Amino acid sequence: MPPPQPTPKKAVPAPDYKTLKAQWEAAKRKKDAEDATKKAKEKQEQQQQPTAELNSDEIKLRELRRAALEGRRKKAYKSRWLWTAGFWVWMLAVHLVGIGYFTSGFLLTRLQLDDKSLCEVPPTAGEGDILPAWSGKGTVEGGCWYPKTFERAVVVLIDALRYDFTVPVDDNAAFHNAFTFMYETAVKEPNKAFLRPFIADPPTSTLQRLKGLTTGTLPTFIDVGSSFSGTAIEEDNLLMQMKEAGKRVVHLGDDTWDSLFPGYFEGNLSRPYDSFNVWDLHTVDNGVIEHIFPLMEKKGQWDLLIGHLLGVDHAGHRYGPDHPEMTKKLRQMDGFVRDLAEKIDDKTVLIVMGDHGMDSKGDHGGESDDEVQAALWMYSPKGIFGRTKPDFATPPATADIRPVNQIDLVPTVALMLGIPIPFNNLGRPIEEVFAGPRGNSWNNLAAAERVTAAGIKQYQASYYAARGMAEEAVSTPGSPADLWNKAEGLVSKGNWVAVYSAYAEYQKETLARCKSLWAQFNIRNMILGIAIMGFGVLTLLVYVSKGAEDDEAVDDPELDDAEKSLEIMGVIPDSELPAADVLERKLVAAAFLGAVPGLIGGALHAYLKGTDDYYRGAAMAALTSIATVGVSLYEIKETLVTLLPSTLWGWMAAVFTLSQSIGFASNSYTIWEDSILMFFSTTFGFVTALSALRIQSLPDRYMAIYHSVLFVVLGRLASSSKLCREEQMPYCTSTYYASSTSSTSALWQLAIPFAVSLILPTIIKAYLQPTRSYEGLAPAWIGYVFRTGLFMSALYWVLDAADNGDWIPNLPDKTLKNLSVYNAQMVLGLAFVAGTTAFMWAPPCVSIVTSASKATPTRAQVAILGYGNAHGARYLLLPLNFLVSLILLSKPMGGGALALLFWQILSLVEIVDLNSLSSTPIGPVMLAILGSFHFFKTGHQAVLSTIQWDSAFIPLFTVRYPWSPMAVALNTFAGQILATVCLPLLVLWKASPKQKGLLGDISRKLGVFVAYFAVESLATMAWAGHLRRHLMLYRVFMPRFATAAVVLIVVDLVGLLVGLAGVRVNTVAIGEVFGWAE
Ligand SMILES: [Zn+2]
């Protein structure tokens, strides 16, 4: 493609407000004067009356009145805008309360108990013992509940160490066969070491895993969201027990530990490091390695030494597993563990483990096999580990064989170190540790299993008591109580093999019961949440259909003229000006009036009943508020009947939205959502192409067909960007990154942003030229500033690739990273700071040209270039600012997809205009579908692991609040955000300065747009609630609901803070020049 030449324009300096306004007014006065003279002449001719020449005083008076009127109209507009914004704030509040309520019903699972285990009081107290009394029994010195094996432990946590990274695999993948030491020792010296798969309970985030690995219990899902900042663990846990026993704990590495266990660690020896800088592969690891070896010489100063390394995890996030950096990292870990093992003495046990795995792109968070399968290795030169069967000698070849549950580490470590097992533990002892070197210490195994099981039983009793529930009767065969009694009955018989497996059976069954018990939901809260969302959607739909007729822009120039002259004469009083009687004002007032009794009633109910459920006040307020708003809408004679679609387009919008909602009931529909959205947009393109055939004007007809075809082609093109989710395999090939096991871009993909910077500004220009709107600030802004921003963000990805691939080996460390970050900051500064300023102050994209009229050369003719699209062309500058930033933050392939999205939106706007679809809901619905579609095309899926956390480090070196989460949000929801910012274009495109009712129209279009996302939230909510027992709940339905909920809030916020605010700025700017139409 040849580089586009900026069309040589006559050097017209961008006109500023004053000159533009002066030019416009001069031209207008001239026209008015001409008209007046003409009219006067006509009158004179008709009625033969004296000339009604206007004297100069009269003109002045009229000017003053006109100015006063303009002022009133401006004021009225601003107040109307505020009421509209108020309505949207209310809508946002309704959505927040609805989503919050539903989620609270869903996530409320496990009751946390405050009980702590005590060393002197084993749960088996008073019952016959399996082991003879050992010296120091019931003390930490000898072992509280079981004879102590080790004095000290070194726990090395290699974040995201997947099981297959540690065992031989017959392939050449970068992540295989690099970390061999642990496997080798387990094979060569089975008494000194063992290696087993270590299975995490989802969600597979480090924070959640650390809780499980120290308390021995299952996660409460409420914590997933707090992944960015953890809060202290208050439940009984290993570290608490260590501290209670007067032991010293030292921690090195990932600072998540610090937030979970504040004040637990020896301050002078511990070294926490920032955990979220996924860009940085080495700082944390080097810090741990540097500080751990000196500590190995100071064994008297600690009892538990924790080293948490993050390099493997970060290599996964940054590059994906199949990358040379991963090989390097795993080799480094291999050497590190090798060196560390040499320093371990007989009194110390070394535990190396992963907290979770990583998916094929190096991310985690969900519950796929790759994400939950970590590795566990224990080592002691003492040689005490055993195998109960000869086949167990070799570590399992895959993680499916003989896996250990991660919570099993808790009783194992507690019993090894002689401390009590934390009260809430549900895990069981790991066999190798207690089986004895020959693998036949069945009495030890039985004793360890029994004391653990007794702890679980005690916990169960407390839990049921705290919840006020009855335990299952002993008589039910297979119930935990039944299994427990059977096991107890076996103890006296002395068959330890049988005793061991009987208690193991009890533990297994209890764990399963707990899982299903905690998967119980607060149905009332869920229903309340769904009801709030449902009524919210209904209200929104009624609001949208309301006014569609009575606000129909009346474009009758004569009526307009008459009205205007009446106004100028001062005949129309202020109170009859628009805005005095705004629908939104009524609604906002109703919303507040309705909320108050609900709030008071809900809170009072909670108070009287003695429940602490004051949140119910919020829910009640939401419901009563929706009810009063509904009533006031009804009073304006709106009924639900008006909601039924009456046109083909209305039906199409409804079918697209509703079939989605029904589809979310099926996991395969949810998994293949991107293809379905593609199908919808293609269908729309074909239907509009057909419908274009009815357009009378030939050029318009051809343009409409052209844009429809273009719309489909662009969508097809965008669909070549794919990031597959695990469930789509093997029917899907990821193209978003260099390969399916990488999270860096392929070399050829780096060309995409450059192509975008070359082509996109030219395309935008082509959309502005037919309305002669490439005027004012547009040529400079689009042709130069916007293009420069795009070029710089393309450059960013080259610098990034050069840094990743170490293209210039002799550069000083971090040179490229510095360059790329500063470059990115400049792009964002250009877009958000300069761009917003420019948008605030830019005059309309019009030029006023005075030329001699052809017919009567003596009379000057005034033409305003761009008049017909004055609103749209100027507003367009705002989405462009967002587009540059979103392209920067979306990786090369995503940037390309976003450019296509923007192009598609421009065509959509043309299609809506040419086919006269602006009074139907199809425009906003299609825009919403486009936004959702490009969520997938920018490398995302509705699963936690596709969040591109590394995007936080595009403009920053370290985690900074609130910027880091904002960068991640802009990256994740780029498609929906761009679509939302573009929404006002559906109304403003080709709107001239004199068009009325734009604000109300935009607010209703926003209503349709938000309704699409609200229906999606409602549907995913309802299905997740209904399918709460479904096997795929946490894998498919729950993440889809979470995505829909967050998207809805994002769309609400962007629509209000960017869309409506931008429209206000835009209207004021147009009004200042051309006078107020509203
Ligand atoms: Zn991670």
TrEMBL record:
Residues 24-57 are annotated as: Disordered. SUPFAM superfamilies: Alkaline phosphatase-like (SSF53649). It is found in: Endoplasmic reticulum membrane. One of its GO terms (cellular component) is endoplasmic reticulum membrane. CDD domains: GPI_EPT_3. Keywords: Endoplasmic reticulum, Glycoprotein, GPI-anchor biosynthesis, Membrane, Transferase, Transmembrane, Transmembrane helix. Residues 31-45 have a biased composition (Basic and acidic residues). It is a multi-pass membrane protein. One of its GO terms (molecular function) is mannose-ethanolamine phosphotransferase activity. Pathway: Glycolipid biosynthesis; glycosylphosphatidylinositol-anchor biosynthesis. The chain crosses the membrane at residues 81-102, 526-544, 587-608, 614-636, 648-669, 675-695, 746-768, 780-799, 819-842, 882-906, 918-936, 968-989, 1009-1029, 1041-1063. Its main location: endoplasmic reticulum. GO terms for biological process: GPI anchor biosynthetic process. PANTHER family: GPI ETHANOLAMINE PHOSPHATE TRANSFERASE 3, PHOSPHATIDYLINOSITOL GLYCAN. Belongs to the PIGG/PIGN/PIGO family. PIGO subfamily. This is GPI ethanolamine phosphate transferase 3. It comes from Triangularia setosa.
